[in-house]
Amino acid sequence: MHIGMIPDGNRRFMGKKGIHNLGESYGMGIEKFHQFLEWCVDLGVSEVTIYALSIENIKNRSHKEVNTLLNLFSNHALNSLEDERIHKNGVRINFCGDREHLSRFGNPTGKRVVENMNRLENCTKDHENLKLNIALAYGGRQEIINSVRKLINSGLELNEENLRENLWVKNYPEIIIRTAESRLSNFLLWQCAYSEIYFIDKLWQEIEKDDLIEVLDDYKARERRFGR
Q1: pTM (2 decimals)?
Q2: Is residue 183 within 8 Å of 13, Cβ to Cβ?
Q3: Mean pLDDT of 125-153
Q4: What does the pLDDT read at residue 32?
Q5: In terms of pLDDT, which residue wins out, 142 or 59?
Q6: Which residues does the annotation mark as catalytic?
Q7: More confident residue, 211 or 14
Q8: Is 227 a domain residue?
Q9: Lower CB count within 10 Å: N or C terminus of the chain?
Q10: What are the helix (H) ranges across the chain?
């Protein structure tokens, strides 16, 4: 099973808990994600795509905030090279997003993130238990445009199979979950055509394993018809 996750509510969590340090709050969000991965492993999920940072976030948020996030992601990628939670659970990491766009941001910050993510990809490439797609500098529309551009440049026929093979995220999610809000925000737009979508009325840092179990139980009880 492939789950797409949009973890939202970080800044509201800061206000709710009286946290004044952005890095501290996002650090708590990253720790919650490690818990989420553990739950997915326990519950037999084989693939997770996490919406870490959109292209719109990079364009529209302050340089200071984006720079703080990218430094946090870069350091976390570096630390994850030896994180036993990644290796004991057999997590293979795939960075999906516009690496070129990210590399151009706030040199050397953007380049350092890409370099460390590349190292993490290579370090985990032989793991087979769970695939983790980290959507960073990601946008669903941009992903489709990128795929079409590749097809045009290669001379391949523009059809669904070829387009899919050139997407950043190739496998379609059965489930997409979003915390705190009820929209997709340019996430996996091609891939979500037949996904079951769940909105959880909690901030990301407040989500618990029982919330994921409830979603999976509801999914298992549904009849997926795919237009039949």
Answers
A1: 0.93
A2: no
A3: 95
A4: 92
A5: 142
A6: 8, 57
A7: 211
A8: no
A9: C
A10: 10-17, 22-42, 55-60, 63-80, 84-88, 99-103, 109-123, 140-154, 160-165, 209-221
Tokens, residue 173: 């999610």
pLDDT (mean) for 132-151: 96
Q: Report the alpha-carbon distance of residue 113 to residue 63 in Å, rounded.
A: 15
> What single letter denotes the amino acid at residue 31?
E
Does 226 reside within a domain? no
User: Is residue 56 included in any domain, yes or no?
Assistant: yes
How many domains is the chain built from?
A: 1
Residues 11-42 pLDDT 10s? 888 888 898 888 888 888 889 999 999 999 99
Residue 162 belongs to a domain with what CATH number?
Answer: 3.40.1180.10
Which amino acid belongs to residue 89? N
A 10 A CB-CB count for 68 gives 17
Q: Is residue 132 part of a domain?
A: yes
> What range defines the domain where residue 212 resides?
2-221
- Length of the chain, please? 228
